[in-house]
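Quick one, T. Sequence first:
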Amino acid sequence: MSDILFHGYWRSSAAYRVRIALNLKGLDYEEVDHDLRTGAHKDLSYTAIAPAGLVPAVEHDGHAYVQSLAILEWLEERWPEPALLPKALNDRAIVRGMSLMIAADIHPINNLRILKYLKSELDEPQERIDAWVAHWIQEGFAALEVMIGRHGDGFAFGATPTMVDCFLVPQVFNAERFNVDLSAFHQITAVAEKARALPAFVTAHPENQPGATTA
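Structure tokens:
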């Protein structure tokens, strides 16, 4: 039995990021799936671990960690090899900035609880919700496309997977789920295609998780 307990949801892109990082680090973990559609993440047994009731969360050695970016930073410090951050100080700042373009600017306004609110509380039709999703993904990707053009060399930053790729591939998955037009983003789609061929990314893919469904 692994000493890393990972709380996620098979289709959560934030959880997807952490699975990729765990796999790239070669770490064994046990995953508990909390179905966001049924509200399982709001169960008191889970909010005792993650008070916000959000996935992912990681338990290890008596401690609980929340928020995917913080979890990836913890993994990097606890198991520094293989590295997800470059060695040079300036390069690490660039990688963190690129990661945050997804984690802070794109994903939060397109995640499930926001989309549910738009539909149930503001009574927005699905076509307007889809347009909302596409707008914010395309706006964020336009900036990332430039950054990858400057710093990428097969992957989003450099010639090996970094933290950025852990964030980028799940965001591309989200874009594809909502049929967002990515034809203008040649750098992003090329990086995603290359990364998704690696075993660490294949194993982490939502459709390859035990709780995955077609609904």
